[in-house]
Each structure stands twice: as structure tokens, then as C-alpha cells.
Amino acid sequence: MTVPMPIPEQTGLDALRAEIDSLDRQMQELLIRRFEVTREVANLKQSQRSQNNWRPSRQAQLLRGLVERHRGTCPQTALIRIWQEIMGASLALQGPFSVGVAIADTGDLWDIARDHFGNVAPMGLIGPAPQVVGAVTEGDIAVGIVPLPNDGEEMPWWRLIGVGNDGETPVRAVARLPLFGAEGARGNAAIDGFALARLTIEPSGQDRCLMAVETSQEVSRGGIAALAGKMLPAGARVLASAIENDGRWWLIEADQFLPVESPSPFATESQIRHYVHLGCYAAPYGA
């Protein structure tokens, strides 16, 4: 009986498949060990009674490093998605953690929230953005996702954050989403949003700061934009405004990290009645 000789191409293909199987097993073993270390971190945090399980600045640093080191044919979007799933699952193991998503008239925030926190983190729709702020304030959820605001909203969520009771960490903007784009969103439904939480603000190395200032109603958008450009030379933009009593509040995003305890960059400007630091967060990648 004649034994057929293996086809060289088939032999090479079998060898490559065997190598892929071996690599998959090695990757799984590394993943198992990573989650063992995550559990050790969780135990240490519990012993220290730490409530700051999510560190958005560290997440941004890890993802930036991942992208900057990357090479080869694996799509960057797939690489980011894999690691966001790993980090989201790790976060869920470290203690109670849940995400509340605002229902926004301007688009769908669910996709960018799920992309950022992965499929393991508990997530649910809450209601309008002010209701999300209330849920974060009361501790009903760890993180709230709210939309990029518009001018003239009746109750803008950004007027409800940045100020807390004595000794309490206030709700602040701690991330802007999407951090790396929203390629997986359904059509054009996804919109930009902010993640709100009661966390200590930490720099990531490439950051933005959100602030609110009050002026008289006579100050124009162009006027406040010019003033922000002068007082925040790294770059700034006006995102929204809202009339309150006899004044107008402006939401400004600056291209720099400003510590919460730092003085107002508008302290010398008589046009500014009040200033509120609303948070800092990693700048979206490539922005």
C-alpha cells in the first residue's frame, strides 16, 4: 500500500496552526495570571478601604502606551477593544462598580460607554443628565455618562457638579468619551460624552480641564472665547452657556491640567464673577 506524501503547503499550514494554538494557550495563561494579580490588588485596596477603584488617568496612559508600542497587522481598533475589555473586567473584580448612562436627545451614549468600560461592568440607562448627576452624588452608581451639552439647556448638568459638602469629594468630569474614537458605534448615532465620578483628579500627561465661569449677560461668546484664549494660552474653547438669574455661565474646556486646588486662571479679570473647577481628564487620542 502506498502512503501518500504530505503536500508541502499543507505541512506548512499545519505547523502555523499549531503555533497559533500554542500562542493562544500562552496568552490565556498570561491572562489568568493578570487576573490573579488584579485580585491581589483588590484585596489590598479592601484592606486599605480604598474607594478609588477606577483610575481614568492610568487607563488612558496604558491605552496610549499600547497604541504607541503597537506594530504589525493587528488593527489598532481591535487592540484597544481587547484591552478595554480586560481593564473593564479587572475593574469589576475590584469592588462594587456600576455605570449609569444618560438618555440624551442628541444621540446614543450607550455605545461609547460600553466601548470604554467593556461588557462585564454593570450598566444601565438612568434618565436625563441631571438625574445621572444625582445618582453619582448619592452613590447609587460609580460613574455617570452624560452628553456634550448645548447652549441654553434648562438644567445643564455641568452646573450641578464641581461643588460638594465639606470634606466630601464632589462629582467631577473625569473622562471624555470616546477616548479612541467610536468605530463600533451604530451608524452615526454615537455622540461625545463625559464620564462623571467622585474621584481624585490625577494627570495623565496629556490632559484637558473643564471649568465654568460666570459673567454678566452682556458678555458675548466671542468675548469670553477671547478672554479664555488670553488666560489659558495652551488653548481653550467654549462648549456651552446658560443664563442664570442676571448672569450667564460659560462652560470652558482648556488644553491643560489644572489641579483642583489651584487658583482661578481668571482671578485678575473683573468680568468674571465666579469660577468653578469641574474636573480634568485625558485628552482624546489624536485630538
TrEMBL record:
GO biological process, one term: chorismate metabolic process
Domain Chorismate mutase residue range list: 7-98
PROSITE patterns in alphabetical order: CHORISMATE_MUT_2
Pfam families listed in its UniProt record: CM_2 (PF01817)
GO molecular function, one term: chorismate mutase activity
Assigned EC number: 5.4.99.5
Protein name (Swiss-Prot/TrEMBL): chorismate mutase
